[in-house]
Specification:
Layout lengths: L8 H25 L5 H27 L7 H27 L8 H23 L6 H32 L3 H35 L1
Length: about 210
Protein backbone atom coordinates (compact mmCIF):
# COMPACT_ATOMS: atom_id res chain seq x y z
CA UNK A 1 0.00 0.00 0.00
CA UNK A 2 1.34 3.43 -0.92
CA UNK A 3 2.04 6.02 1.73
CA UNK A 4 0.06 8.69 -0.14
CA UNK A 5 -3.69 7.93 -0.38
CA UNK A 6 -5.50 8.29 -3.69
CA UNK A 7 -8.21 10.95 -3.92
CA UNK A 8 -11.46 9.05 -4.50
CA UNK A 9 -13.95 11.92 -4.46
CA UNK A 10 -13.88 11.88 -8.28
CA UNK A 11 -16.30 8.95 -8.26
CA UNK A 12 -18.78 10.93 -6.13
CA UNK A 13 -18.55 13.82 -8.58
CA UNK A 14 -19.09 11.50 -11.57
CA UNK A 15 -22.18 10.20 -9.78
CA UNK A 16 -23.44 13.75 -9.22
CA UNK A 17 -22.93 14.47 -12.92
CA UNK A 18 -24.95 11.45 -14.02
CA UNK A 19 -27.72 12.12 -11.49
CA UNK A 20 -28.02 15.65 -12.85
CA UNK A 21 -28.24 14.30 -16.42
CA UNK A 22 -31.01 11.90 -15.38
CA UNK A 23 -32.99 14.74 -13.80
CA UNK A 24 -32.67 16.83 -16.98
CA UNK A 25 -33.73 13.90 -19.18
CA UNK A 26 -36.69 13.03 -16.95
CA UNK A 27 -37.86 16.63 -16.80
CA UNK A 28 -37.76 17.03 -20.60
CA UNK A 29 -39.40 13.62 -21.11
CA UNK A 30 -42.28 14.52 -18.78
CA UNK A 31 -42.70 18.01 -20.24
CA UNK A 32 -43.03 16.59 -23.76
CA UNK A 33 -45.19 13.65 -22.69
CA UNK A 34 -47.64 15.96 -20.90
CA UNK A 35 -47.47 18.50 -23.73
CA UNK A 36 -46.51 21.21 -21.25
CA UNK A 37 -43.27 22.41 -22.77
CA UNK A 38 -42.96 26.18 -22.37
CA UNK A 39 -40.46 28.93 -21.52
CA UNK A 40 -40.25 27.81 -17.89
CA UNK A 41 -39.22 24.33 -19.08
CA UNK A 42 -36.47 25.80 -21.24
CA UNK A 43 -35.20 27.72 -18.22
CA UNK A 44 -35.29 24.63 -15.99
CA UNK A 45 -33.35 22.50 -18.50
CA UNK A 46 -30.79 25.30 -18.78
CA UNK A 47 -30.37 25.20 -15.01
CA UNK A 48 -29.56 21.49 -15.20
CA UNK A 49 -27.04 22.25 -17.94
CA UNK A 50 -25.39 24.94 -15.79
CA UNK A 51 -25.23 22.55 -12.83
CA UNK A 52 -23.53 19.97 -15.05
CA UNK A 53 -20.95 22.55 -16.13
CA UNK A 54 -20.30 23.46 -12.50
CA UNK A 55 -19.67 19.84 -11.51
CA UNK A 56 -17.43 19.33 -14.56
CA UNK A 57 -15.36 22.39 -13.59
CA UNK A 58 -15.11 21.07 -10.03
CA UNK A 59 -13.73 17.78 -11.35
CA UNK A 60 -11.12 19.58 -13.45
CA UNK A 61 -10.13 21.82 -10.53
CA UNK A 62 -9.74 18.79 -8.25
CA UNK A 63 -7.77 16.98 -10.95
CA UNK A 64 -5.35 19.89 -11.18
CA UNK A 65 -4.91 19.90 -7.41
CA UNK A 66 -4.61 16.14 -6.86
CA UNK A 67 -1.28 14.31 -6.79
CA UNK A 68 -2.46 10.69 -6.94
CA UNK A 69 -5.73 9.79 -8.68
CA UNK A 70 -7.71 6.52 -8.48
CA UNK A 71 -7.60 6.08 -12.28
CA UNK A 72 -5.49 7.72 -14.99
CA UNK A 73 -5.78 11.49 -15.08
CA UNK A 74 -6.62 11.56 -18.79
CA UNK A 75 -9.45 9.08 -18.20
CA UNK A 76 -10.93 11.27 -15.45
CA UNK A 77 -10.79 14.29 -17.76
CA UNK A 78 -12.32 12.37 -20.68
CA UNK A 79 -15.08 10.75 -18.64
CA UNK A 80 -16.09 14.04 -17.01
CA UNK A 81 -16.30 15.78 -20.39
CA UNK A 82 -18.36 13.02 -22.00
CA UNK A 83 -20.84 12.86 -19.11
CA UNK A 84 -21.16 16.66 -19.28
CA UNK A 85 -21.93 16.36 -23.00
CA UNK A 86 -25.05 14.29 -22.20
CA UNK A 87 -26.66 17.18 -20.31
CA UNK A 88 -25.43 19.71 -22.86
CA UNK A 89 -27.21 17.83 -25.66
CA UNK A 90 -30.44 17.46 -23.67
CA UNK A 91 -30.30 21.24 -23.42
CA UNK A 92 -29.83 21.43 -27.21
CA UNK A 93 -33.06 19.45 -27.73
CA UNK A 94 -34.87 21.85 -25.41
CA UNK A 95 -33.44 24.86 -27.24
CA UNK A 96 -34.44 23.49 -30.64
CA UNK A 97 -38.03 22.95 -29.50
CA UNK A 98 -38.06 26.52 -28.20
CA UNK A 99 -36.30 28.28 -31.09
CA UNK A 100 -38.27 26.35 -33.72
CA UNK A 101 -41.50 27.22 -31.88
CA UNK A 102 -42.74 23.64 -31.87
CA UNK A 103 -46.31 24.17 -30.73
CA UNK A 104 -47.04 20.51 -30.11
CA UNK A 105 -43.89 18.67 -28.99
CA UNK A 106 -45.90 15.57 -27.99
CA UNK A 107 -44.48 13.56 -30.86
CA UNK A 108 -44.39 9.74 -30.48
CA UNK A 109 -40.88 9.44 -31.87
CA UNK A 110 -39.50 12.19 -29.64
CA UNK A 111 -41.26 10.62 -26.66
CA UNK A 112 -39.58 7.28 -27.41
CA UNK A 113 -36.20 8.97 -27.85
CA UNK A 114 -36.53 10.73 -24.51
CA UNK A 115 -37.62 7.53 -22.75
CA UNK A 116 -34.53 5.81 -24.15
CA UNK A 117 -32.33 8.73 -23.09
CA UNK A 118 -33.61 8.45 -19.51
CA UNK A 119 -32.85 4.71 -19.56
CA UNK A 120 -29.40 5.23 -21.03
CA UNK A 121 -28.48 8.02 -18.59
CA UNK A 122 -29.64 5.78 -15.74
CA UNK A 123 -27.45 2.92 -16.99
CA UNK A 124 -24.51 5.35 -17.20
CA UNK A 125 -25.20 6.33 -13.59
CA UNK A 126 -25.17 2.69 -12.45
CA UNK A 127 -21.95 1.97 -14.34
CA UNK A 128 -20.25 5.02 -12.81
CA UNK A 129 -21.42 4.08 -9.29
CA UNK A 130 -19.82 0.67 -9.64
CA UNK A 131 -16.50 2.17 -10.76
CA UNK A 132 -15.84 2.80 -7.06
CA UNK A 133 -15.22 -0.94 -6.85
CA UNK A 134 -13.49 -1.40 -10.19
CA UNK A 135 -13.13 -5.15 -9.62
CA UNK A 136 -16.88 -5.54 -10.18
CA UNK A 137 -16.14 -5.75 -13.89
CA UNK A 138 -19.03 -8.03 -14.84
CA UNK A 139 -21.68 -5.76 -13.32
CA UNK A 140 -20.18 -2.63 -14.87
CA UNK A 141 -20.02 -4.30 -18.29
CA UNK A 142 -23.69 -5.31 -18.04
CA UNK A 143 -24.62 -1.65 -17.82
CA UNK A 144 -22.31 -0.82 -20.72
CA UNK A 145 -24.02 -3.51 -22.82
CA UNK A 146 -27.41 -1.97 -22.01
CA UNK A 147 -26.14 1.48 -23.07
CA UNK A 148 -24.94 -0.02 -26.37
CA UNK A 149 -28.34 -1.69 -26.89
CA UNK A 150 -30.13 1.62 -26.39
CA UNK A 151 -27.76 3.34 -28.83
CA UNK A 152 -28.54 0.72 -31.47
CA UNK A 153 -32.25 1.18 -30.79
CA UNK A 154 -31.71 4.93 -31.25
CA UNK A 155 -30.14 4.39 -34.67
CA UNK A 156 -33.16 2.37 -35.80
CA UNK A 157 -35.60 4.86 -34.28
CA UNK A 158 -33.92 7.79 -36.04
CA UNK A 159 -34.18 6.07 -39.42
CA UNK A 160 -37.81 5.15 -38.82
CA UNK A 161 -38.71 8.64 -37.58
CA UNK A 162 -37.05 10.45 -40.49
CA UNK A 163 -38.52 8.05 -43.07
CA UNK A 164 -41.99 8.60 -41.61
CA UNK A 165 -41.40 12.35 -41.53
CA UNK A 166 -40.59 12.53 -45.25
CA UNK A 167 -43.54 10.31 -46.14
CA UNK A 168 -46.22 12.11 -44.13
CA UNK A 169 -45.11 15.74 -43.66
CA UNK A 170 -45.67 18.10 -46.58
CA UNK A 171 -44.26 21.26 -45.01
CA UNK A 172 -40.52 21.40 -45.84
CA UNK A 173 -39.80 23.73 -42.90
CA UNK A 174 -41.33 21.27 -40.44
CA UNK A 175 -39.32 18.48 -42.03
CA UNK A 176 -36.08 20.41 -41.47
CA UNK A 177 -36.99 21.22 -37.87
CA UNK A 178 -38.03 17.72 -36.80
CA UNK A 179 -35.21 16.00 -38.67
CA UNK A 180 -32.69 18.00 -36.67
CA UNK A 181 -34.49 17.33 -33.38
CA UNK A 182 -34.48 13.57 -34.06
CA UNK A 183 -30.80 13.67 -34.98
CA UNK A 184 -29.82 15.57 -31.83
CA UNK A 185 -31.86 13.13 -29.72
CA UNK A 186 -30.02 10.21 -31.31
CA UNK A 187 -26.71 11.97 -30.66
CA UNK A 188 -27.48 11.95 -26.92
CA UNK A 189 -27.61 8.16 -27.08
CA UNK A 190 -24.35 8.15 -29.08
CA UNK A 191 -22.76 10.22 -26.32
CA UNK A 192 -23.92 7.79 -23.65
CA UNK A 193 -22.26 5.05 -25.70
CA UNK A 194 -19.04 7.10 -25.77
CA UNK A 195 -19.15 7.13 -21.96
CA UNK A 196 -19.64 3.35 -21.93
CA UNK A 197 -16.62 2.86 -24.21
CA UNK A 198 -14.48 5.07 -21.97
CA UNK A 199 -15.58 3.05 -18.95
CA UNK A 200 -14.69 -0.17 -20.77
CA UNK A 201 -11.24 1.26 -21.54
CA UNK A 202 -10.79 2.14 -17.86
CA UNK A 203 -11.68 -1.44 -16.90
CA UNK A 204 -9.09 -2.83 -19.31
CA UNK A 205 -6.38 -0.53 -17.93
CA UNK A 206 -7.19 -1.31 -14.32
CA UNK A 207 -8.18 -4.97 -14.64
Amino acid sequence: MGLIPKETKFFDLFESQTENAIKAAEFLRDSVKNNKFDDSCVKKIKEFEHEGDTINHEIIDKLNATFITPIDREDIHKLAGEIDDICDLINVISNRLHVYKIENPKDPYLEEFLANIVESATAVNHAVKNLKDIKRTRRILEYCIEINRLENAGDSLREKAITDLFEKEKDPVKIIKWKEIYEVAETVLDTCEHVAKTIEEILVKNG
